[in-house]
Amino acid sequence: AALAALAGAGAQAQEPASVAPAPETATRAWSIEPSASISETFTDNRRLAATGRQTESITQLGAQVRVASRAGRVQGSLDYSLNGYAYARDSGADNLQNSLNAAGTAELVEQHVFVDAGATISQQIVSAFGTQSVDPALSNANQSEVSTFRLSPSVRGRTAGVARYEGRLNYSQTHSGSALGSSANSGGTLSATSDGGARLGWSLALARQVADFSAGRRTTTDSANAGLSYAATPELKLSAGGGSERSDVTQVQSRGNATWNAGADWAPTERTRATARVEHHYFGNGHTLSFEHRLPRSAIRFSSTTDASSSAAAAGASSFVTAYDLFFLQFASIEPDPVRRDALVRGFLQSIGISPAAQISTGFLTSGVTLRRNEQLSLSTQGVRTTLTFTLTRSRTTPLAVLTNPQDDLNQASVVRQTGFSFNAGHRLTAQSGLNLGLTQTRTSGTTAAQSTRLRSITAALTSTLGPRTSGALSLRHVESASATAPYTENAVIASLNLRF
Asked: Which residues lie below 8 Å from residue 213, measured CB to CB, with a gap of 6+?
């Protein structure tokens, strides 16, 4: 249903004012926006089975609230929803699911002491080789509710206009209902940088990071680095640095090694930005590449990263685009101010019943530190009545730590590759209604022929704004899953109604 709603979003993007928040919402420091939704899904394969298919009527009731602060000493946002699913033929399967995306900063002492915090709750795939699905309402034993929490206090300041300093502690915890996907990360950094203004700058940093996996082992990485930066032109900044690192991730005994990095940041106009950075660490070479260019009614974004990850959740998908990311970039030509654009995008997505944190691609859970390479290309264009969006993703995940949990994909395969694409075409029929089409596909492969899955989804939807704060949609969905162990097809009709208070 979410994919159909995402496709429908494009149909109304031409006239975002029809779903823009009330003027007081865009200007008040604090805003609270409750909403509710109801949907009915008629599916011919609730259990996602190859044989013995079961038809089902699923009623979903949802309550959502968004809280945002854009001024003062506490700034951030919280999006929470509680969804209840009721099954007409099997009431024993009734369940509640949470969704949360929260992040904020509190300034405890003016310009000196800060606390950053964040939390997420989402439904995630456990195994990349298991049953895949596009709707959390369908029965899938390969799905788990995963929650994360992070807290990071910091002290910042300046020393006589010569340097800026920061001391930061960080703690994060990920919990999953499965045997995988639970971990805790802690550590801290001490850093000093030259006070801005000069073309030549410097930086010093000390860091420690500890990763403790409930289904794996505890690892520690310490590092010390120094760097120089040079503003060659107002648009181009160059940087380079080096240092040392000690880690026990790849082996039980800690091992030290030299590190180095080099990079460039280029911003010739406010519409074009590019970054390139390469680094050498205990796992080898990593990199960060990004490019973003925006025209009045279209945008392109590319990113490529290779880095170690100590998160147990959603391996291989952490940097992929969300619905919020895609439309925040796409609406830049409509509303340049980031605060007002945030309210516009969230109000727009809420009006069609899609979570801002909804990801276009899926990942999997793991029990140790991994090396991830993620690549993504996103394109969007807006015509007078038609909007097109396209996203292409690719990831490669390998283990860095020794894994012993037999349920871990990376204990069964030395590498997990995932590729995917999403295409959405929306056509505005009237100022209040739109017709749209969505196509998504994700492929996963391991080291054997049996470790291969392909999930393809086609959706069509008619969406309508029924009132200033009410919207509805009627969607059709066809899903094909090709797998050596869990193939299936599924068809569904979804009717939904969303109300913002």
From this structure: 182, 183, 312, 367, 368
Of 191, 196, 204, 188, the closest CA to residue 241 belongs to 204
CA-based end-to-end distance of the chain: 22
DSSP conformational letter for 21: P
What would the pLDDT profile of 16-29 be if each residue is shown by its tens digit? Answer: 333 344 344 444 57
Q: How far is CA 85 from CA 42, 60, 355, 428, in A?
A: 13, 5, 17, 31
Question: pLDDT, tens digit, for every residue of 458-467?
Answer: 999 898 888 8
User: Tokens 């429908």 map to which residue?
Assistant: 8
User: Which residues have CB under 8 Å from 367's CB, separation 6+?
Assistant: 180, 181, 213, 214, 215, 216, 312, 403, 405, 408, 411
DSSP conformation letters of 329-387: HHGGGT--SHHHHHHHHHHHHHHTT--TT-BSS--B--SS-EEEEEEEEEEEEE-SSEE
Whole-number Å distance between alpha carbons of 394 and 241: 29
pTM for the full predicted model: 0.85
Q: Are 243 and 223 in contact (CB under 8 A)?
A: yes
Rounded Cα–Cα distance for residues 131 and 133 (Å): 7
Cβ–Cβ < 8 Å for 30, 69: yes
pLDDT at 402: 80
Whether residue 457 contacts residue 477, with contact meaning beta carbons closer than 8 Å, is answered with yes
Give the three-state DSSP class for 17: helix
Nearest to 212 by CA among 313, 146, 316, 310: 310
State the pairing for strand pair 113-125/143-159: antiparallel
Backbone angles phi, psi at 384, to 5 degrees: -65, -40
Number of H helices, E strands in the chain: 5, 22
Other CB atoms closer than 10 Å to residue 372's CB: what's the count?
Answer: 23
Helix/strand/coil for 50: coil
Q: For residue 120, give the nearest of 83, 146, 82 by alpha carbon.
A: 146
Alpha carbon separation from 223 to 260, 269, 462 (Å, rounded): 11, 35, 54
pLDDT tens digits along 387-402: 788 889 899 999 998 8
Pairing of β 200-213 and β 30-43:
unpaired
Amino acid at the residue 431: A
Q: DSSP for 266-287, please give it.
A: EEEETTEEEEEEEEEETTEEEE
Instruction: Give the residue from 58, 51, 45, 60 showing the smallest Cα distance to 89.
Output: 58
Token readout for 88 is 């007409």
DSSP string, 389-418: EEEEEEEEEEESS----TT-HHHH-S-EEE
> Cα-atom radius of gyration of the chain, to the nearest Å?
23
